[in-house]
Structure formats: structure tokens, C-alpha cells
Amino acid sequence: MTTTATRIIKFASRPGELIATRDRDLSGRVALISGASHGIGRCVALHLAQHGASVAVNYFNSPDEAETVSEAIRSFGVEVLPVCADIGDQQATTQMANEVIEEFGRVDILINNAGVNHDSYFHQMSHEAWDDVLRINLTGVFNLTRAVINPMRQRGYGRIINITSIVGQTGYAGQTNYAAAKSALFGMTKSLALENADRHITVNAVAPGFIETRMTRTIPDNIREDILSRIPLGRLGRPEEVAQLVGFLAGERAQYITGQIININGGLYM
Ligand code: NAP
User: Other C-beta atoms within 10 Å of 3: how many?
Assistant: First the structure.
């Protein structure tokens, strides 16, 4: 469904603040975003809401931040539902998805964004660090997608976007657990795309490079300098920039794109 009820023009005040036009092109759509209390997920939630979607804001540890995001979304005049669940917990995740479906009637757009990292060299890595990252970053995507896929199939419409990482493509010393989970999402994305194309459900992955969020804030200065020196565009990405790409994939104009891994990394990996 595409309605262009309102068209707002806003000029960017700094490079990277790319919200140039805002069509209400997602009016009537319902989006569920995992990990929408911070960083990329927060920006995706705001972006989809600005484009008219009703939004379910999933969070786990950050209720205050989730409420702040939800308040901002309400101010755009669209419906919002903050929903708490550890996406690594299948029962809690299914309950959460059911709550969203009960409230909004369906989920049209699923953004599997929530993720964590517990970094250490492999020869020092604990089983807990391995398990936790795989449980949230990979099994969490299973849990949430499994909870919404059948209603999506019945309705014959869906957009699923998995947030993976450049680290799944290049590897990164100290992140074997994170890289394993993120590269697993590539195969999962393509298989899901194949299985669900006949139901008009597209499934794509977005692979960001290094983006300015809480996750990258703790990178030590010397490593940050090294990363920056290798990024052709000379800076880290902004979560708003990732949100723009996710927003495009979530919309009607992306209806012929499925099974793709789309990079947004300043040229760090080509
Ligand atoms: P972030 O700022 O740390 O945000 C992570 C989000 O995930 C938070 O909203 C957090 O919510 C949520 N989350 C964590 N564990 C959860 C759980 N068990 N259940 C539900 N939600 C959970 O990180 P970010 O940089 O925005 O990362 C978002 C995604 O992008 C992740 O998948 C990450 O791997 C990926 N990514 C990031 C970068 C980067 O450079 N930043 C690069 C490539 C890919 P609570 O705080 O409420 O628990």
C-alpha cells in the first residue's frame, strides 16, 4: 500500500544527515525492529516512523532509551509500541511478536537489528562469550523471524532485513564469535529469500562497516586510527546513513530486490 499523504522537505544541516525528503510512503505498514533503543536500530525506527509506518520498538536492557525513542515516534503522529524481550529467549520473543500482532494486526516489516559483541582472541575466548554472541546475534534472528514468518506468508507480503556486518565478510581479530554469527546471516538471508519469494516476502541483509554507535565507542584510539586510515571515505559511518538504506529496502521501491547482501562501509570492503 502506498499513500503519499504528506511530503516534507528538510535540508541536511551537516553531511550525513541525509533526510532530504520524507514521504509517508510506509503509511499503513507495521514494522518491528529488534534492538531499537540505541544506535542503528533507534535510527531505523525513527526513519520508518517518519515515513508513516507504525513501529514496534524492541529493547531489552534499556527501557528509558526505548521510551525516549517511542516518545519521538509518537510526535510524528504514528502508532508506536515499546516491547521488551531478550531476542535470544525464544519464548519471550514469540510472546513479544504475538503482542505486536495483537496490537497492530500484523508485522509487514521485520528488521533483525539487535546485536552484541564480546570480544577476545579465540585462544582466550570463554564458552560464555561464544554462546552469548551466537545466541543473540544468530539464534535471535531465528527466534524473531520464526515468530512472524507464518503470518507474513499467510498475508502474502513481507520485508525482512537482517543487519549483519563487514566483519562477517572480512573477519576481524578478536571477533571470531561475532564474525561467525554475522557471516551465518548471509546464508540464512539467501535461503529465507528463496523459500519466501513466492509469497512476495523479500529478505535482504545490510552489512555496515564501522558506524558511530555505542558498539564502536569503546574501540581504543590506536585501533580507531588504524580503521580510519583504511576507510576510503575517511570517516566512520553514521547510524542515520544505515537507516536510509534499510528504509529503502523496507519500501515499495525495493520490491525486486531479494537475497542480497548490501554493503554500507565507506569503501572499506568492496
Ligand atoms: P548498539 O548501539 O549497542 O545497540 C544494540 C541494540 O541491540 C540495543 O538497542 C540493544 O538494546 C539491543 N540488544 C542487545 N541485546 C539484546 C537482546 N538480547 N535482546 C533484544 N535487544 C538487544 O549497537 P549498534 O551499533 O546500533 O548495532 C546494531 C546492529 O548493527 C548489531 O546487530 C550490530 O552487530 C550491527 N553492526 C554494527 C556496526 C557498528 O559499527 N556499530 C557495524 C556492523 C554491524 P538494549 O540496550 O535495550 O538491550
Answer: 12
